[in-house]
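Replying to the earlier thread about multi-chain prediction with a worked example.

Input:
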Amino acid sequence: AQSVSQHNHHVILSEAASLELGCNYSYGGTVNLFWYVQYPGQHLQLLLKYFSGDPLVKGIKGFEAEFIKSKFSFNLRKPSVQWSDTAEYFCAVNRNTGRRALTFGSGTRLQVQP
Amino acid sequence: DGGITQSPKYLFRKEGQNVTLSCEQNLNHDAMYWYRQDPGQGLRLIYYSQIVNDFQKGDIAEGYSVSREKKESFPLTVTSAQKNPTAFYLCASSTGTGLNTEAFFGQGTRLTVV
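Result:
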């Protein structure tokens, strides 16, 4: 079965610190990879996505992620976080065979302290 | 505006009662999904539908039922057989279920059993 693992459940950072959230998936075939963000009281929004091509993907609000196929990883990064980045972040995977729906990780709650 | 509308935003149910959550989209998407979100568990797939009059079980379908009689609508019924229904429910849609498609999410319905 396909699974998605997010290693950090709760991360606390100070403003201007760098962020890296880990995401690994278990499926070996062709995949699409996503990071979604859920700000307090708001709906789930897409931060960035990888379909194919350049493995370094840039998203909104200064976020980026790197797809490393050999490591089955898609880690999310931001050089300098802001208080407004406080939210829950979800990694998700989709593939073209088997069950055709997004599989999500358990989420990482990011708390940025001013 | 195009989007996904879930209603109601908050729902209270007595134990033993069935309740139906509404999800409507005007994005002309073929595929629709229902996820359940619980703290620390991410989003888990309940049911999904790739096309009208067709749907498949996800990872946690027990105690839930769906219908897909119209392209724009995918209601979810939480039955009395669902042992722990208190959760946040998210509906999503996408143009298809293969690779290179992106899912869009509604605002969610928070169901509480009293």
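Chain B has a mean pLDDT of 93.

Feel free to reuse this layout for your own posts.
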